[in-house]
Amino acid sequence: MSLFKNFNFNRLKEGLKKSSDKLVGKINEALTGRAVIDETFFENLEESLVTADISYETVTQILDETRKQLKNESDRTPAIVLKVLKTVLINNLITIDPARFEQRITVNKPYVILIVGVNGAGKTTTIGKLANNFRNSGLNVLIGAADTFRAAANEQLEVWANRSGVRIFQKSMGSDPSSVVYETIREAIETKTDIVLVDTAGRLHTKLNLMEELEKIRRVAGKLIPDAPHETFLVLDGNAGQNAIKQMEEFQKICDITGIIVTKLDGTAKGGSIFQIGRNSGTPIRYIGVGEGIDDLQDFDPVQFVEAIISSEKIIN
Ligand SMILES: Nc1nc2c(ncn2[C@@H]2O[C@H](COP(=O)(O)OP(=O)(O)O)[C@@H](O)[C@H]2O)c(=O)[nH]1
Ligand SMILES: [Mg+2]
């Protein structure tokens, strides 16, 4: 097996256009007329990064790191500063080893992935796109519809399952989510399924409720497969700014998040939030959503992401 890599640089650039235009516009303002690097230059650069929805604290850390690395450079033109800045931004982002991920999927069958996140973050849509990506890798996928709180939830998930041509296991609205998870995994074992994607509800009355629910799902999954869920992906809305950071911290307290998916990076100028999320999470960002279509979930690649958001070709210098 070789995992299908959904990555298209042009599509990424297009999706990040708003963020990139704003950020690069500001960087260009900072660079204009400056042949050498001085304090004003750094102040302007700082402002550019804050505008891209990175917190002041994080920007300060990023620029401190940039200055430190610049000490090793003999040539200090704005172009060199940008090159170093990009490296610092890239190094902020934790990645996974795709070969190891492939190996884990091959060894663990079914490989159970739990999708969590607040309502509206993009969980259901992302499951549809993920199912499509895995199916394109030749894997067979079963979706478990464990968001049993809303009547429309099953319907929406079913549409996505049909679109991506994968199976779905569902029960009636109001069913115990953990019973859905149990039966989904049981069916996946019987049908020799490769990947199980579990949708969950984002809105539970209290944090305690959510914690108990996720804990029960874990326990029940573990009865059938001791290591399941093998992964828990947290879906965050790329537009949510500081709220996304808060959500991440809350979810990290109640479950073992193994990866983050940032959605809706198209149509926002807040793409810089990725650096904020990456720096604060200590968890790899695995995929990003750059549109509502089935092909719009891309594998996250820090190098390409940084190049797409700070495109060299757009920098005046
Ligand atoms: N533009 C855009 N919209 C998205 C993306 N991901 C999800 N959405 C939209 O966000 C809304 C909420 O998504 P949904 O999957 O229902 O969220 P859930 O409540 O977490 O399951 C829907 O209208 C989706 O079409 C994305 O990457 N880009
Ligand atoms: Mg949903």
Q: Work out the helix count.
A: 13
Strand content: 5-15%
Which class best fits the helix and strand makeup?
alpha/beta
Mean pLDDT: 91
Query: Are any ligands bound, and if so which?
Result: guanosine-5'-diphosphate, magnesium ion
Helix fraction by DSSP (H/I, runs of at least 4): 40-55%
Strands of the widest sheet, in order across it, are 3-2-4-1-5-6-7-8
Uncertain ranges: none
Please summarize the sheet with the most strands.
Answer: 8 strands, mixed
Number of strands: 8
Taking the alpha carbons of the first and last residues, their distance comes to 45 Å
Describe the fold and architecture.
This protein is an alpha/beta fold. Helix content is 52%, strand content 13%. The protein is built from 13 helices and 8 strands. Strands 3-2-4-1-5-6-7-8 form an 8-stranded mixed β-sheet, with helices on both faces. Strand 2, helix 8 and strand 3 form a beta-alpha-beta unit. Helix 3 packs across helix 4 and helix 5 packs antiparallel against helix 13. The longest helix has 18 residues. It is elongated. The mean pLDDT is 91. The protein binds guanosine-5'-diphosphate and magnesium ion (MG). The site of guanosine-5'-diphosphate has 18 residues, from helix 7.
Distinctive features:
single chain, 317 residues, alpha/beta, 8-stranded mixed beta sheet, 52% helix, 13% strand, binds guanosine-5'-diphosphate, binds magnesium ion
